[in-house]
Amino acid sequence: MTMITMNKNEKVKLILKALDELFPNAKCVLNYNNDYELAIAVMLSAQTSDNKVNEVTPILFNKYNSLSSLANADIKDVENIIKKLGLYKNKSQNLILFSQKLLENFNGALPSDKKELTSLPGIGNKSAAVIRIEIFHIPDFPVDTHISRISKRLGFVAKSDNPDKISLKLKKIFPIDTWIKLHHQMICFGRNICHAQSPNCSVCTLKSICKFK
Hints:
Distance between the termini: 8 Å
Structural class: mainly alpha
Order of helices and strands: HHHHHHHHHHH
Helix content: 55-70%
Largest sheet: none
Number of strands: 0
Number of helices: 11
């Protein structure tokens, strides 16, 4: 199919319309019961699928059902619970340190400020942004591998752009009131259609503006 030439505003309208039709109810798929559980699930999801995180967090949160218990958890036991996840040794250490620092510095309550969030062990810029949009509903545009891939294929960013740079560019392109929903929709689009390998281009409603083909 021949790629259609559109200006930026036309592409934005097309993408928002297409993703609204495909994934009108897109949302975070990580399972959690409270604010700090969401933060831990996000932390554990680095370089691991959300589905795998959802397999281990019920076991983890059932055994350690409070921040205090997590702060005093045995690291070997935590490693054993989450060992199917990538970087599980580092994540186990960060999980315990995160719980300790959240109690010590913030009385157990997650802060909404990004600088304060990233002061917690295991919480980087992307994790902080996810926490802000999920818990506090503060507009932000965290970029994962799906969003990075799609943004490059649709020509919104350069192939060499890192997640932080992609986030800044997407924030300039899309209206602020679409950021949170679009973040979830692009992830769904990447998981279900625009795969890293063998994307399902035959059913893609955005293929006319995609550089991949």
